[in-house]
Design a protein that fits this description.
Keywords: Transferase. There is one protein chain. Strand 1, helix 1 and strand 2 form a beta-alpha-beta unit. This protein is an alpha/beta fold and 409 residues long. Helix 3 crosses helix 5 and helix 12 packs across helix 13. The protein has a seven-stranded parallel beta sheet, with helices on both faces. The chain has a five-stranded parallel beta sheet with strand order 10-9-8-11-12, sandwiched between helices. It folds into two domains: 236 residues, Glycogen Phosphorylase B (Rossmann fold, 3-Layer(aba) Sandwich); 158 residues, Glycogen Phosphorylase B (Rossmann fold).
């Protein structure tokens, strides 16, 4: 049986599916992962077939001005992203598939492909996309508004997403020979049918809302693939062994062009707090030199994080989960998208200091937050408690069970 996983976005939107795909492959399925071309090595390293999924991952919104990204820039880049995705989405399916696993970014297009081809589909989302009274939608700038307000803003967020997808969906359905159907109408059809969606995050961070419809379940985190023989580079091992556990500072795919400013802030904060540090270059290009600081590229979180004193990060879903899994406290500096949501969840369970908004980041604020999370045991205890909770979850196994139920039933 051939399974096609379709995901789009930054590295953090793709990497979890490499681990999920590898687990499905070990269970005997043929697995392909469709993503943008820059992620081909990541996919193939997990032993999965790579299929190209056109999407301009480089045209991502920058930090903007004030307290967050420019909303107009966000809308423009999101619309361009969806348009690129829609133009070539069907080509990824042409390679053959018996089941589609659709991320939150690909589902609004994948539903139409499933209709045209008759291929069954299953949602595999990294963020809680369904409206609920428990919390507001995971889009930037939305504060809790009570149960009624949270549900209404959640539905509004879906309507905005539907409008963004409308041109791409119109073109895709025309290409597939399907009658017109708006993104909103298709979404309502999915909801009425209680189409299954599994969410790849831990209930240590978000418990399943009681007001979700049947078919929406939290599976547990899907971890990026790591080879059994992978090791940290010698220079990283030497640095880790040469002193107390350091702090990692990294912003993943965020903050392009901000490297000089962020590197200066990070080094000054670490030294104010009396801590050693590892700067992960990322898209920002963080870099520094010194006996107490090391600059690194991409490294497996599973190998590095358990050996740290704390992690300073942008609160992406994957990095947030990885720090918890390692039992390591965090200082979060959310930039955009769902990052403020995850930063708030980490703080709510006591595993992180209160978030520092990206544009409010200073060496003084970061140093103070680092002193708190490193020297107050409550933060590490909360992270360790979440790590223990996560050991009882099997996110990939839950998807495997759903796949078998869907295909055997």
């Amino acid at each position: 049986m051939r399974i096609l996983i379709a995901a789009a976005g930054s590295r953090g939107d793709i990497a979890p599916y490499t681990g999920l795909g590898a687990e499905l492959r070990r269970a005997g399925y043929e697995v392909a992962l469709a993503a943008a071309d820059p992620f081909a090595p990541l996919v193939r390293a997990a032993g999965l077939e790579f299929r190209s999924l056109p999407a301009d991952t480089k045209a991502r919104p920058g930090p903007g001005t004030g307290t967050g990204p420019d909303p107009r820039e966000l809308m423009r880049t999101a619309a361009a992203f969806v348009t690129d995705l829609g133009r070539g989405f069907a080509d990824a399916v042409d390679g053959g598939a018996d089941l589609l696993l659709l991320s939150a970014t690909t589902a609004p297009l994948g539903w139409h492909l499933a209709e045209a081809t008759g291929i069954p589909s299953l949602g595999v989302h990294l963020q809680p996309t369904a409206p609920t009274g428990d919390f507001p939608p995971t889009v930037p700038g939305v504060r809790p508004l009570g149960r009624f307000g949270n549900r209404m803003t959640g539905r509004l967020a879906l309507r905005v997403a539907d409008r963004l997808h409308d041109p791409a969906v119109t073109q895709l359905r025309r290409r597939l020979g399907l009658p017109p159907c708006s993104p909103a109408a298709m979404r309502r059809r999915q909801e009425r049918a209680n189409r299954p969606v599994l969410y790849g995050f831990s209930t240590a961070l978000v418990r399943r809302p009681a007001d979700w419809r049947p078919g929406l379940e939290i599976a547990g985190t899907w971890w990026p693939h790591v080879d059994a023989d992978d090791q940290l580079p010698p220079e990283v091992e030497d640095f880790l062994r040469s002193g107390p556990p350091p702090v990692l500072v990294g912003f993943g795919s965020m903050a392009s062009g901000e490297g000089e400013r962020l590197s200066d802030i990070a080094v000054r904060a670490l030294r104010r707090a009396g801590l050693r540090g590892i700067l992960q270059a990322g898209a920002a290009g963080l870099a520094a030199e010194g006996d107490d600081v090391l600059t690194v590229g991409d490294l497996p979180h599973a190998l590095l994080f358990p050996r740290l004193a704390a992690v300073v990060h942008h609160a992406g879903a994957g990095t947030s989960a990885a720090a918890l899994r390692a039992g390591v406290p965090a200082v979060t500096v959310p930039v955009t998208a769902d990052q403020p949501f995850w930063a708030g969840r980490l703080a709510a369970i006591g595993a992180a200091a209160d978030p520092i908004p990206f544009r409010s980041l200073t060496a003084e604020a970061l140093a103070e937050a680092l002193r708190r999370v490193v020297h107050r045991p409550a933060y590490a205890q909360a992270a360790a408690g979440a790590a223990e909770h996560m050991t009882g979850e099997d996110g990939a196994g839950r998807v495997l069970l759903a796949v078998r139920q869907l295909t055997d039933g």
